[in-house]
# Entry
Amino acid sequence: MHEEPYAQSILDMALEKAGSRPIKKVILGLGRFSAIEPESLELFFSHLSRGTPAQGAILVFETVPVTLTCKTCSAVLTLDIPLDQPVRPALGRYLSRGCSCGSTSLSFSGGLGLDLIRLELGD
Ligand SMILES: [Zn+2]
# Structure
């Protein structure tokens, strides 16, 4: 149950952006390798947002692909992994194959976390 702090930080960000306007939808970028369960996040969000302008807001999840950045040439590799396939084996292949420049020194640059993309506000 590690989704609660994520739900709290998304709520804080959303409330700050919305001012006092009611929040109808919260569009989130969910990293393909984030290990965050959307259902748990929704549960915590709906609990934490009670009595705030975000009460009743719908969470919409958009999948953010995993990206690796080459530490040698700064190229960004986007891992194209179908949603019905596990990330880990494909990730292992990418990491061992390395960058087209020959370097295998890659760091994660996306797809691990959760981001607030945008809000849909009411009047
Ligand atoms: Zn490279």
